[in-house]
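Researcher: I've got a protein sequence and the SMILES for zinc ion. Could you write out the 3D structure of the bound complex as structure tokens? I'd like something to compare against our soaking experiments later this week.
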Amino acid sequence: MLLLDCPWCGPRSEEEFACGGEGHIARPLNSENMDDAAWGDYVFMRSNHKGVYFERWRHGLGCGRWFNIARSTISHEILAIYHVGDAKPELPE
Amino acid sequence: MRAQINRLAQGGRIDRSEHLNFRFDGEAMRGHPGDTLASALLANGVQLIGRSFKYHRPRGLMAAGGEEPNGLVRLRTGGRAEPNVRATEVALYDGLVAESQNRWPSLRFDLGAVNDRLSPLFPAGFYYKTFMWPGNMWPAYEAVIRRMAGLGRAATAADPDRYEKQYAHCDVLVVGGGPAGLAAARMAGRTGARVILADEGAEFGGALLGNDQEIDGAPGMDWVGAMAAELANSDNVRLLPRTTVAGYYDHNALTMLERVADHGPAPEPHQPRQRLWQVRAKQVVLATGALERPLVLANNDRPGVMLAGAVRGYVNRHAVRPGRRAVVFTNNDSAYGTALDLAKAGIDVAALVDLRAETPLGWVAALDDAGIEIMAGRVVSAVEGRRAVEAVRVGKLNDTGTGLVGGLGRRLDCDLLCLSGGWTPSLHLLSQSGAKLLWDEGLGCFLPGRAQQAVRVAGAANGAFSLGDCLALGAEAGNRAANDAGHRRRGRGPRHAMAGEEPALTPPLPIWKIPGDDAGKAFVDFQSDVTAADLELAAREGYRSIEHVKRYTTTGMGTDQGRTSNINALGIVARALDVPIPQVGHTMFRPPFSPVTFGALAGRRIGPLLDPVRRTPMHGWHQDNGAAFELVGQWHRPYYFPRAGEDKDQAVDREVLAARTSVAIMDATTLGKIDIQGADAAEFLNRIYINGWKGLAVSGCRYGLMLGEDGMVFDDGVTARLGPEHFHMTTTTGGAAHVLDWLESWCQTEWPELQVYCTSSTEQWAVAAICGPMARPLLAELAPDWDLSAEAFPHMTWQDGAVAGLAARVFRIGFTGELSFEINVPAGHGMALWNALMTAGQKYAITPFGTEAMHVLRAEVGFIMVGQETDGTVSPQDLGLGRMVSGKKDFLGKRSLSRAHSLRTDRPQLVGLLPQDTNLRLPEGAQLIGGADPSPPQLAMGHVTSSYRSPNLGRTFALALLHGGHERHGETIYVAFDGQAVRAEVTAPRFLDPGARAK
Ligand SMILES: [Zn+2]
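Model: Sure. Here is the predicted complex with zinc ion in place.
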């Protein structure tokens, strides 16, 4: 049960949040020019790797806001919490 | 009444002045306050307490706490009955009723014991080997095996008691109230930190409850009492006895089960039976102690074979004599104390057998004084007696520890064999927290590895086996935990408690399988009935990892999570593979540490409180008028309104006919509504829906489809333009919350530049939908100022005004194909609107209809139902709605519609089906096939999505997804169900045209 520090509400239990999967996946603006494989990659493929993972969460049962976090998928340590639209933070590997 | 023949005349933490009556397997017995069910049974001379899981061997108590593998009973009766309760953890109360388990017809005479003789049938992995052929007989085998080899029966009556949940936060959670835990809680408490101390038992003290060690020159329990009193008087400390910490999750979230009222026959009226705590702790101190292991030798499961530490506890704490003549067999020092305490209590100790040649000097003199013979370098090689221990043989161990010198050896009469195979730090919770465990060769056990969370381990759990170390290291752990949680002590701390003098430790000697009587089964896991031979067989068959051995042999998979067996199993497997123990690895421990009842997990969320209930403002009217309800999401929606004597079909037929011939009314309040405002609202809808929105006039309404980025339909509904920058979106009843989340996610994350605000307004509005040829005159009567003509108020528009004197917004939209008005009023006026419509509608025989009639009506005219015709794999083209797709703009999911897979012409496509038998209602979900013979194998060609009877058509009909269906109208296909295949004609998915009526 993670403890997430919502940028608007402060630390709250995971139960109040919903995970929106991998972050920093921009929606392509030129999709009509993309081939099927490239579009399929955007829609379906996620890195799902072991290590530091950048992902989107929403405080659904709180303020309703989306934000980004960096989480270790091994230890579940939260390494950073930052606003939507901010660049990925620099993290020591 | 049975006599307490094994109750000692003095000593113990029991109250002899009070008698508690209880029954075990129907027999009346008595005990005292301070007894557990286990100690009371021993006091009454009950040695046989259950039959083992697989072989149905007679079993007695082996332990005194949560590690007990044998003593599982069914406690209480009726709805309060609970199976698989450890007798060692049940506090005795007056009127207690318990039954033995896993025996038939009786505990003394059990037919299942034949399994013991047939044991070649039950080798390691017997599930996988013996009963695999012929495969179709497996259900029969399984039924027999389950009946013969099972644990207890669950109660079948409803549980009358309450269970509660509680959330808590603290600075320091201390798990375990023995000397280390008490010292830790005290030091942490002195800093002002918020401390919770939880212990499984009713009384704090841990190991001190069962021995006579001294602290500060006085009995250890005096110190425990003083500590408990000090902590109880500290406002910042919460003491939770009878509370098991069951789970250790991420970010120091732990669950605890508090047994609030399990120590009585029934909870007091104000009490729950149990309370499930969810704790978030800044720091955790695990002072969970260590568990003693038995030695693995032939017939080590006979009633009368017990753990040495448990025997010591029964004698000292409960004043019980577990036997009259004891043999103590050990590989370490701790059992010497048991031998001494037995002698002190007047119990004959035939010998202490130590498999080490070198005996601990600090203890030898004391045993000599007590007249106890020490047999060093020797082993108990055989146990005699079937239902109880009658004697043991003591043989001489050879130099390598692998065999005997000179046979099984000397025979010693005894009825109690106390075993100590060393101590296993209880690190289940630490393992759950993510930490690795490291093997310590010197201590012969696993110790904590590097912590992954904010946790410390103190006391015997950390390999500190002397009382002095437990006190000192416990205090240090408590202090540091509080410091790390931001609390520091001001001024001098309390004086450290000092333990009395303790003999120096002589290292234990691990010999994992004691050589001796080869004919007897040597048990490792008593609860799962796994023997040393089973483990050796698994090793011979090629299993190398302990995780695989565990699954193959089932060792460690019982409700005790292998508390007494894991290390012995590891040692035996490592020896069989001839590798060091760390190479075999240890199994991961997973929550819960101890079984948690479903009652506690469910808490108050049962029955009507299981899920929130949503009702419309008109719900009372529906109830008063006999509606049958169905759950849609959390909404209770009228399903149909049966009149006296009508069944469901008759009621639905009547409702459907009324909607097409006169006027019918439906409560449409539950439709999701989202208010969308902002300068970019139209642009936003353009991106969300597949069709265009910028050209929609204010006062206009439009039907829209939403897709996921995969191009598949996930919701639909009509959205109205209330102003240039203001829209009123409707969604499906079940999809409303998901759609709002969807809109929000795009607004917030992908298009923050758009000025758009989305607000749920579902519950702000009550909606009555009226439809049918008489809908217009009915509304005209209640809205006399309005021009309701088709020209002034055309289809797919909306108007504001007064209806029945109420401020209303009316949409000329519908879901039945008939002339329809959806009248929205503020929720508080819903009932008034409904009553006005029902009263004015009497002259047209206005008919309320429910969801089933609505389904029939919409299917007749070919309107899809999201979730019925769609399942997340259906595109707009599949539904025949490809013409809605705008070519002028991008929208969510658009690119997916032109993926090669989306363009295939053999995709499942929406069609109508008319079964040849016009009375047959095809089952929804039934598969479509090509021929009249349904026997497999078959090419599946799609399935029925909706199926109804239509009183308008005078026959049944269905909607279906059929591979390539758009090009197959007029063909014949077959629908397979219940072993038959029935013929049906493929048609367009539209069966009826209301024509001019709808204008
Ligand atoms: Zn928040």
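Model: The helical segments of chain A are 36-44. The interface with chain B takes residues 1-3, 13-14, 18, 20, 26-28, 31-32, 34, 36, 39-40, 42-44, 56, 58, 60, 64-66, 75-76, 84-85 of chain A (CB under 8 Å).
Researcher: Great, I'll pass this along to the crystallography team.
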